[in-house]
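Dear H.,

Thanks for agreeing to be a second pair of eyes. The structure we're designing against is below in token form, covering all 210 positions.
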């Protein structure tokens, strides 16, 4: 059953509408496919890292309470996965959409768009059409329209400045220990080829559900 949305919760209400529009599409997708473990076609580790860096910047600017709630919503959604396609429950799909919307609304638009632009830059133009070919086309189109409407509600409720950063207390024992760790590990870090494509490869012999 769909989640019950508290009155006055604009993002929650919009997430419910998005779920109504997108859940048939979500059920079309094979979430257990190994395609999600494969690297983006034709992209190197450094190119992909630039997009990941923008995601990290966005996460660092988000409201930490909302980030925690989003992580908990995803954890719960993983627990309700069932069926041959590995689909989460409708209620958990509602909760995940609402949680993501609130996180995005807690970050200034410029940082959100930086993530969008960086992912666009590493995504082959043929990928969306290929992914759409794997599902029912009308379901995908209805989901996309629902997403656009959801996006507009999130934007209307979006902050203009980021949350205040966390303050490190004086007498920071963990910070001091981290400095000692860095002293010990930096030569090892310099030995590693961080530009290798090995980090884009799936774990050998492991499936998406694992």
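And this is the sequence the design step returned. I haven't edited it by hand at all.
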């Amino acid at each position: 059953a769909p989640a019950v949305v508290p009155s006055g919760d604009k993002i929650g209400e919009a997430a419910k509408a998005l779920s109504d529009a997108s859940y048939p599409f979500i059920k079309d997708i094979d979430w257990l496919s190994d395609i999600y473990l494969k690297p983006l076609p034709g992209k190197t580790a450094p190119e992909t890292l630039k997009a990941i860096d923008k995601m990290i910047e966005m996460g660092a600017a988000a409201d930490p309470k909302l980030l925690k709630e989003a992580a908990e919503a995803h954890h719960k959604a993983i627990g309700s996965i069932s069926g041959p396609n590995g689909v989460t429950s409708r209620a958990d799909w509602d909760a995940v959409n609402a949680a993501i919307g609130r996180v995005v609304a807690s970050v200034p638009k410029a940082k959100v768009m930086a993530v969008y632009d960086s992912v666009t830059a590493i995504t082959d133009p043929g990928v969306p059409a290929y992914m759409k070919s794997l599902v029912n086309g009308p379901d995908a189109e209805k989901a996309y329209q629902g997403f656009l409407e959801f996006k507009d509600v999130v934007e209307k409720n979006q902050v203009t400045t980021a949350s205040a950063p966390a303050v490190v207390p004086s007498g920071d024992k963990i910070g001091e220990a981290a400095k000692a760790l860095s002293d010990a590990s930096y030569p090892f870090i310099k030995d590693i080829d961080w530009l290798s494509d090995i980090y884009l490869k799936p774990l050998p012999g492991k499936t998406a559900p694992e």
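Two observations from my side: The chain has a mean pLDDT of 90. Residues 58 and 111 are 6 Å apart (CA to CA).

Warmly,
E.
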